[in-house]
Amino acid sequence: MGIWIDVARVSTALNVVLLLGLSYVWLDNYRQFRSKHTLGLSVFAILLLCQNALAVYIYSWDETLSHWFATAVPDIAWQAMLALHLLEFVALVFLTWVTWD
Question: What Rg, from alpha-carbon coordinates, does the chain have?
Fold first, then answer.
């Protein structure tokens, strides 16, 4: 069961890194152009960043929840949560590639 939480930790941490980069670019673009589109992308990235940062905290540093996730959550639940984290990572990689291109 330990491998699931480790992969979840890594994928959510990578999501945080990608979202920091996207937030930087989109906020900079909003400051320059004052477009509602870039504002919307910035708000989206910041909210998703908060969600992923909370997941990293829960999986890694919260004493109660990290222990519970590592020992009491069934494998099938971890596989489902991990699939969502990995799909989000792939989507963010693509979005980062499109944004930085």
Answer: 15
The HSE-up count of residue 28 (CA atoms within 13 Å, CB side) is 8
CB distance 59 to 9 below 8 Å: yes
The lowest-confidence range among 19-23, 31-35, 64-68 is 64-68
Q: How confident is the model at residue 11 (pLDDT cuts 50, 70, 90)?
A: very high
Show the tokens assigned to 6.
């480790």
Going from the C-alpha of 96 to that of each of 10, 14, 20, 26, the distances in angstroms are: 18, 12, 10, 11
CB atoms within 10 A of CB 20: 14
pLDDT, residue 70, reads: 83
Judge contact between 11 and 60, C-beta under 8 A: no
